[in-house]
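Troubleshooting log. The previous run stalled partway through. Resubmitting the same two chains, unchanged.
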Amino acid sequence: MARSLQCFQWFWVSGKTLNMQLTLEFGGGLELLCDSKKIHSVNVEPQNGADKLIMKDLLSWVRTNLIKERPEMFMKGDTVRPGVLVLVNDCDWELSGQLNTSLEEKDVVVFISTLHGG
Amino acid sequence: MESIVADNDASRILREIESLKDTRTRIDHKISLLEAQLREINLQNGASEERSSPPTVDSRNGLTPDMIYRYSRHLLLPSFGVEGQANLLKSSILVVGAGGLGSPALLYLAASGVGRLGIVDHDMVELNNMHRQVIHTEKYIGQPKVKSAAATCRSINSTIQIVEHEEALRTSNALEIFSQYDIIIDATDNAPSRYLISDCCVILGKPLVSGAALGLEGQLTVYNYNGGPCYRCLFPTPPPTTACQRCADSGVLGVVPGIIGCLQALEAIKIASAVGEPLSGRMLLFDALSARIRIVKIRGRSMDCEVCGENTTFTQQKLREFDYENFAQTPLSPAPLKLNLLPTESRISSKEYSEKIRNKEPRVLVDVRPEVHFKIVSLPNSLNIPLSNLESRLPEISSAVKKEEEDKGVVSGSSAQLYVVCRRGNDSQRAVAYLQKVGFTSAKDIIGGLESWTHNVDPNFPTY
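Second attempt completed without errors. Output:
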């Protein structure tokens, strides 16, 4: 853990392009799990030196780095909990391969909890 | 003795008010019926006069002169026109829920000239609805929302048919009610109703305009339209109950459901009049705080969907037997939860607590509601430590107890009693269970919370 954090900082500081810059947005109440902040501009490094990042990796990165409380309100098993929609560049992730969706630099990923109120 | 007499007087007056209000509603209703009859007679008289003189109107479009005048701004729209209006006048739309979403939706649907407009709701109008449920007026507080909404719709447009379904939507009545309408609008406030409504629409082949709003956000989409997905295609598994916040607990800015409800009316009008492109296969996400509307592409119909998929076995019979409350782990008409976690010796009634105050017994009162609730109203001398922070703020409780003992000069051997209060008496029990575990063994909760304080001790203490 400490080692990967060091690597992460090193890549970032050295300004190499191994990090992927993404915009993550949380809505429908999910923002409460990450300090009530809705929009997060983040740099994520692909796992184990891989040259691409997929949604599965991003989810575990989010869980470790952004979710501050009640992780069970965000994830169930290795995917999002029922009632959460995931949108990659304004498109339902079901249409792009769910957990296997490949991410690219500057992608916008939205996590939104479905509302029931009225 | 005096107070008993006063109580009797008060309840007699209340009964009288209730019965007068009932009479007033009946009279209002009768007046609007008579007015409609009168208009009908005038219209026929006008028509017969016309017959006697040579016809000056070409009425091939089926619109009466009154209709042409009333809907003229619709008729002038090249993309809507006479055809769109004629379709609308022939259509029937059902709005389930006459609350924050249903109110504006119904206002616009009635005004626009939907031929038959149905309203389903079983709730009564309350003062704390008024900031967002704009179809209701103060004089209807305490009366059924369906009656209130129908009266407003009739006062806007007496020429359309308004149907009152004053009942809760259940598996036993949903199919029968829905089958009388072309389009369904989901303006409810809970997960099991949303599944029931969607399933019903799939079985009967009705398009569903679904809206939701909470806090400062809203969502909107059209389900089961032209081969598009249904609610279950998107959400095959219900969310955990802890993820389903209610307006009554989390709050809602009144205009937010207003905006979504208006958009629901718009989508329903588009479908009914066969004009434009409905929001099917797409979802609108509205964030009021940042003034952002995002329209995203959602998945299509799922072949594996339990209700609309290829190999579905979901029939009318199955719907009637389906336990939606158990499926979504939430009642169809959500009432506040009533937990019972603690033994009676760890609990105290609000009346008993008021006696402790009167007797100046050494005590500390911890209010475990979120800070935003505490700011609305609180009991004097209470210490606000929200349940979510309780663990980290235990030392504050210890020092408050110690200070109270010093101030009141408590003799050694006894101690200041620790009480916990919240809004309705659920979180206070959770807090006491935790406090007892970490050493505050004599902590007690106030049964029924501040709501019980208002009901049983001080009727002037505000509720929210």
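Takeaways: The radius of gyration of chain B is 28 Å. The mean pLDDT of chain B is 92.
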